[in-house]
Design brief:
DNA-binding region: 34-53
Domain HTH tetR-type: 11-71
Number of strands: 0
Number of domains: 2
Helix content: over 70%
Shape: elongated
Order of helices and strands: HHHHHHHHHH
Pfam families: TetR_N
Protein name: Transcriptional regulator, TetR family
GO molecular function: DNA-binding transcription factor activity; transcription cis-regulatory region binding
Structural class: mainly alpha
Length: 191
Amino acid sequence: MLVVMTPRQRRDMRADILDAARKLFGTKGYTVTSTADLAEALGVTKGALYYHFKSKEAILSALVAEPAAEIAELAAHAGERTPRELLGALIDLQAHHPAAYMALQSGDASVLQEHSQRHDFAGRTELIILAIAGPDPSPIQLIRARMAVVAVKEGAMAALVEGGGKLTDQMRLDLLQAAAATLDAGGRASD
């Protein structure tokens, strides 16, 4: 018997698939998680998954689109925020979208490259780095801004892995203080 889903049921199933992917990608990792794992977690067939997403990569694309839109917004308004606010916002992006970030850092270089190019992560991150470095930055201010962003990215990723995809308030504060300390020596973190 053919079951026809209403538009609402299709949206709900799509949201359920993304929720399951967030959990599995965030705990097991993107590379290790199979479509069979996703189907089993949802109690559906792989065919049901493929009805909504043509591949596991399409599921990841849908997950990455969420933080990509947020980083685009952050980059567009980076000059309106202090360096510390920008670093905090980068931490929060990873904390709110751990599955997407963990999947992108899964070790599959082709996955990272494809999504990085599609969403211009490098260009947008550069805008944020320039805003953190401040107007007319010296070479050392640019280096410190890059170091602070790397500290946030790597530190948040390590904290998310350690915390099973969760970032505690204390860990967020510690990460922000460590990244800001990189800028403090250059006199920018207090801005």
